[in-house]
Recover the amino acids of this structure.
């Protein structure tokens, strides 16, 4: 209890609820430190030590950057990141534009289908691509002599896998638009193209940047796709795996991880900066945009979405189909024997059960922690 | 833009804007039913009505932002019924300003001019002129979010006027502003319109705005035009109870016609001039009189159109008091009268006080039962 001396600035006394909130927040902060910062610290510190745990400064980094095949994967990873981002964001933008700004039929269905890849691991499209375009692929001829094993395969697989994430962000960004701005532009006799660049793009700008950051981060950190279909094209994430699992070289694995962490942190900071500037694009009194039917435009958009969903479903279907084939490509009879996990090595049904158990626990506790944290903040 | 200018020869007899049998359906809902309207060049017209009366829909049909189900819109003697907005000749201002948030004030004003392929120097000169016109000197490089609501609305107005359109459409342009700014901008917009002589249509639900700004008011209700007239016409001679009720405050009292110039209100007999018109004796009517048209006095009873009354409620409204009066012989119907503070002092009026209320013969209006 403080005495109100009339000239001292006052502070509200803390209520009981506030104290409970304070303690709960502290608890969550401790959890976050333990779950995120400690492993990060462990990784960082390991990268400065030798195999026996002695501190050797930047020795590991020097060794890393003097190994040409390791350094080449930095360039490879960035290439994959940039190319995948450009392709996937372009396609997802058109797709999201079709869903939000056209009057084509089956918009809800298209939106649902676009989200399917989110349920699959990144390995899946890579496996499908092997079945389709691999050395024994069904339609290998399409590749025109190029090998699917390498950057082409990685980019296609990643594009499939990242597509839903970017579509979600971009549909949200494009669905909030002020119809009045478009009407003002029309009244000023603005061409469709100029309206797109001066009204549509600026409104979707932050969503667009955010989707680029997400796509880039996913593309450079993913491990599944390059592992399966990367061939000799080495990237950072696979390098970590090779160093740690293949050669038991935890120090070098840590170094590669730090190198990989660098662009990820940069994109994260970039995203934060962009979000901070994302002030209300929609002012009070704005009117939501209702797309008007336009036969030609709607048809083009419908065709585009049809093509994309065909590819998405096709890639998924190939994996599903392949799982029933006895021995690709020599015995194409359909069997269920591949689902007899008891005969596979590495645990069989036990591994399946473990996966489900892990997923359930993560879902329950993850949601609980995130919900509590978000509620308290 | 000479092609947009009306032909001088036909200007005299031809209205600048003509709307014929315009109907707009939204599914089964009729937003506008067979609307006819003519607007002369240089006129300032207000569409006035409650929300949902179709006034904004009518404006949007004139702009081509919504296309009417049937009916014709012609501007400057040319049928524009099926033209898209970008091939019509108008500027528009919305309630939400709708400025391009990513462009500076200068860029917003230059936007429409760039679409018309004007050269850079001409655009700069025109923008400078517009900036001066709406008094925004020094704000050219700011973004809309850095301006106040009133300033943003001036930019929107200047942007609409930039390409010198033949028709200026204002969709509740002042509704989002504070009372003080609103009153100030009212005068400003009106002066600007007079100076430029641009034919203007403004949609509003604010009767005060319509009364102070318009040359003619178009009162609308349920998708139809109820009355067209000058502000004084609309206020003094409302043609329907709806108009009488919507514009200004009005006492509505049930009465019966006695003879051509006389009506019975409760036990009172009132002279009402020509208001009764051709209605036959015995027909039930609604008698209307505005609170400010009632006069009160105390002392001896002047028998003509006067009744004793008691003050029930007094409401102080700043410039005047609004009194609720219980009139003897008028049963349960109370009467609202506006009294000036000076008069209140002279008569020493307070709640419960007695006075005589006079119904001025020439201010009484009568509507037949519908």
């Amino acid at each position: 209890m403080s005495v109100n001396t009339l000239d001292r600035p006052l502070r509200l006394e803390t209520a009981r609820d506030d104290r409970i909130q304070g303690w709960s927040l502290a608890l969550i902060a401790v959890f976050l430190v333990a779950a995120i910062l400690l492993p990060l610290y462990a990784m960082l510190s390991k990268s400065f030590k030798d195999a026996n745990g002695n501190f050797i400064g930047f020795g590991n980094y020097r060794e890393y950057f003097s190994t040409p095949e390791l350094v080449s994967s930095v360039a490879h990873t960035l290439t994959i990141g940039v190319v995948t981002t450009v392709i996937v964001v372009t396609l997802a933008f058109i797709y999201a534009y079709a869903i939000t700004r056209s009057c084509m039929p089956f918009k809800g269905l298209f939106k649902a289908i676009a989200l399917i890849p989110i349920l699959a691991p990144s390995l899946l499209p890579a496996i499908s691509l092997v079945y389709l375009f691999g050395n024994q692929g069904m339609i290998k001829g399409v590749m025109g002599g190029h090998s699917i094993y390498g950057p082409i395969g990685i980019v296609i697989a990643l594009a499939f896998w990242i597509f839903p994430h970017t579509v979600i962000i971009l549909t949200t960004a494009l669905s909030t638009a002020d119809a009045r701005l478009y009407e003002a532009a029309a009244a000023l006799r603005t061409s469709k193209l100029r309206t797109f660049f001066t009204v549509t793009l600026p409104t979707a700008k932050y969503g667009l940047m955010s989707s680029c950051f997400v796509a880039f981060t996913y593309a450079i950190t993913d491990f599944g796709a390059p592992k399966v279909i990367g061939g000799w094209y080495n990237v950072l994430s696979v390098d970590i795996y090779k160093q740690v699992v293949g050669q038991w070289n935890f120090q070098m694995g840590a170094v590669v991880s730090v190198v990989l962490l660098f662009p990820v942190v940069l994109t994260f900071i970039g995203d934060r900066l962009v979000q901070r500037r994302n002030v209300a694009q929609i002012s009070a009194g704005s009117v939501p945009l209702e797309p008007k039917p336009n036969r030609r435009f709607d048809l083009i958009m419908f065709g585009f979405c049809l093509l994309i969903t065909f590819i998405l479903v096709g890639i998924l279907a190939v994996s599903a189909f392949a799982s029933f084939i006895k021995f690709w490509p020599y015995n194409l009879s359909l069997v269920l024997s591949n689902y007899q996990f008891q005969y596979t090595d590495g645990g069989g049904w036990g591994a399946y059960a473990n996966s489900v158990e892990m997923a359930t626990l993560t879902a329950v506790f993850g949601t609980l922690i995130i919900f509590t944290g978000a509620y308290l903040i | 833009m000479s092609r947009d200018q009306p032909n001088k020869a036909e200007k005299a007899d031809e209205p600048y804007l003509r709307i014929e049998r315009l109907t707009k359906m939204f599914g089964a809902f009729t937003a506008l039913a067979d609307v006819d309207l003519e607007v002369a060049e240089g006129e300032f017209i207000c569409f006035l009505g409650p929300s949902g009366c179709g006034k904004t829909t009518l404006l949007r049909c004139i702009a081509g932002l919504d296309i009417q189900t049937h009916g014709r819109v012609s501007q400057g003697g040319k049928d524009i019924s099926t033209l898209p907005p970008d091939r019509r000749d108008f500027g528009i201002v919305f309630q939400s300003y709708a400025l391009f948030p990513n462009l500076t004030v200068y860029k917003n004003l230059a936007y429409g001019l760039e679409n018309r392929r004007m050269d850079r120097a001409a655009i700069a000169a025109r923008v400078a002129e517009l900036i001066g016109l709406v008094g925004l000197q020094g704000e050219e490089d700011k973004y809309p979010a850095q301006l106040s609501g009133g300033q943003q609305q001036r930019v929107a107005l200047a942007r609409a006027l930039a390409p010198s359109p033949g028709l200026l459409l204002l969709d509740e342009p002042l509704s989002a502003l504070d009372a003080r700014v609103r009153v100030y901008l009212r005068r400003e917009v009106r002066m600007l319109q007079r100076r430029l002589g641009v034919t203007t249509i403004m949609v509003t639900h604010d009767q005060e705005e319509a009364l102070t700004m318009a040359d003619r008011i178009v009162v609308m209700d349920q998708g139809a035009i109820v009355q067209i007239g000058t502000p004084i016409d609309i206020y003094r001679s409302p043609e329907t109870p709806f108009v009488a009720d919507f514009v200004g405050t009005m006492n509505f009292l049930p009465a019966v016609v006695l003879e051509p110039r006389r009506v019975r209100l409760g036990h009172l007999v009132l002279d009402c001039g020509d208001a009764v018109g051709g209605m036959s004796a015995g027909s039930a009517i609604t008698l209307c009189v505005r609170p400010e048209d009632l006069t009160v006095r105390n002392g001896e009873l002047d028998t003509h159109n006067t009744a004793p009354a008691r003050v029930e409620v007094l409401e102080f409204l700043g410039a005047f008091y609004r009194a609720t009066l219980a009139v003897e012989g008028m049963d349960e119907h109370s009467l609202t009268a506006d009294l000036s503070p000076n008069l209140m002092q002279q008569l020493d009026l307070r709640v419960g006080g007695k006075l005589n209320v006079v119904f001025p013969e020439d201010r009484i209006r009568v509507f037949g039962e519908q």
The mean pLDDT of chain A is 84. The first helix of chain A runs from residue 16 to 47. The two ends of chain A are 27 Å apart (CA to CA).
